[in-house]
Amino acid sequence: MTDPLLHPLIAKRRAELQLNLQNISQRGFHKEKFCLMPFVNIILEPNGSVGLCRHKGTEHSLGNLKQNTWQEIWNGPEAQRWRQEFLSGEPVTCKKEIKDQHCNLCPELGKMMLPKKQLRESMGTPLRLTANFNGRCNLQCQMCDVWKLPNDFYTEENFWASAREHLFPQLKEIDMLSGEPFIQADTFKLIDEVSLVNPSCKWSITTNAHWKLNQKIIDGLNKIEIKNIILSVDSLDPNIYKKIRYPGNLERVLATIEDLREYETQRGKGRELNMNLNFLVQKDNWHEIPEVIDYCLSRNIHPFITFCYIPSEHSLLTLDIKMREKILRSFLKNLTWGELALSHRILNPLISSLAKIDQSNYLLELNSIKENYEKNDEIKATT
Ligand SMILES: C[S@@+](CC[C@H](N)C(=O)[O-])C[C@H]1O[C@@H](n2cnc3c(N)ncnc32)[C@H](O)[C@@H]1O
Ligand code: SF4
Ligand code: SF4
């Protein structure tokens, strides 16, 4: 396999990351202490709960539409406190996420960066909506509880009427989640409504791709600007896939991905789908990382290797220490530097879970793999 770090998709993402880092420091913030997300994004959950970031998880609620409007929660005391942590450079709420996942540095988020004087505890209308409207799903993944959440909470009264007037016209981005977005009427309703008043809004849609690309879906996608389609595929082995993404059929998903690639060519230049593949590493699938990276890059799909923390029964962190070390050893022995770099969200929590002395040894070892890689790269460049 060719070096993943030399793939144009990865090279582009690394360049964007550098730009994001520059943007953060030019505004006088520290790269390990700032995140734009709570200043621009609101997330609406299937039970009416409102938050500011999907990475904080469904549990991190700042209020509920049963008691307050989304505007009240958006600039409520909890939201202002969270933003203040970033403005003062002392993040508490997101300390762990920043350390382990660096989610604050997401280059895609960085593209929305605002001038410093616009970043305040109390913000104007959200520029980004994470729409997690309904739990309904066609799968019951072992690590997910979203499919158990309610449906049909969002009504004219508690959301649509006020959003139509005050939210949809201002949005720069929509991050569409839900249980499975492509089987839900609310997804197509949102596409119809937003595309009418705000056709330049950019959409990111996270999907299990466990459906057939039919004319209704194509018609919906044709109406919107797509920032990216995030495909959630947690195994390339049909049996493991079915266990994790119960009772899923891997063949169905892989066929849909090929159909989407074909559809992408029909959309034409400048309207690409920018597909990412979200691979959630857990006890059943950690050994598949190289295969997944290879599958993605050979199809021009960006591999996004993420780590399952909860539920703990599926997390590598609840394996005994010998097994965690065995997995780390196996990564260091079998993965190239490029594959290791793309797996940093897995390596960080695994290494942090070890004794201090072992942490130092693994970090030294990783550094030496990196140095060797850089030396070889220099040799390549000179020949
Ligand atoms: C809840 S799903 C909704 C969208 C769609 N049904 C799908 O699977 O892509 C959104 C994302 O959450 C991820 N996810 C599910 N359970 C998770 C967990 N326990 N930890 C981290 N991510 C999780 C999925 O892999 C998916 O990428
Ligand atoms: S640091 Fe991560 S978890 Fe916290 S708000 Fe930013 S993206 Fe969300
Ligand atoms: S497909 Fe998505 S929403 Fe459905 S159960 Fe799996 S992770 Fe959860």
Description:
The protein is an alpha/beta fold and 383 residues long. The chain is built from 16 helices and 9 strands. Strand 5 (173-176), helix 8 (185-197) and strand 6 (202-207) form a beta-alpha-beta unit. The protein is globular and about 55 Å long. The mean pLDDT is 95. Bound molecules: S-adenosylmethionine (SAM) and iron/sulfur cluster (2 copies). Residues 35, 37-38, 53, 55-56, 94, 97-98, 103-104 line the site of one iron/sulfur cluster.
Brief descriptors of the model:
383 residues; alpha/beta; binds iron/sulfur cluster
The major beta sheet can be summarized as: 9 strands, mixed
Give the strand order, joined by hyphens, for the main sheet. 3-2-1-4-5-6-7-8-9
- Unreliable stretches: none
Give average pLDDT, whole number: 95
Helix content percent band = 40-55%
Query: What is the distance, rounded to the nearest whole angstrom, between the alpha carbons of the first and last residues?
Result: 20 Å
Element-level helix/strand string: HHEEEHHHHEHEHEHEHHEHEHHHH
SS elements, strand count: 9
Helices and strands: which structural class? Answer: alpha/beta
